[in-house]
Amino acid sequence: MTPELVVDIGRETLTVVVLLAAPPLLTALAVGLTIGMLQAATQIQEMTLSFIPKLLAMFAALLISGHWMLALLIDYTERLYESAPGMVG
Description:
Elements: H1 3-42, H2 51-87
């Protein structure tokens, strides 16, 4: 296993991790920003107010993008297993 191969596998792994984490994190960011602006406009500073909407939005994001995320993970795993015999040596 060459250092270049290890770097390539690591780079591809990090790309997959970022792609898998993006839908729920971006959803939480958007909902949190929206609720923060509403709290600032109404001067309601309750810390627990943003928790339930964020939780529901992240759940919806996982329901919507879950199929794509699973397909991405399965494709990556299959490619990794298929290339494993060539890594030995």
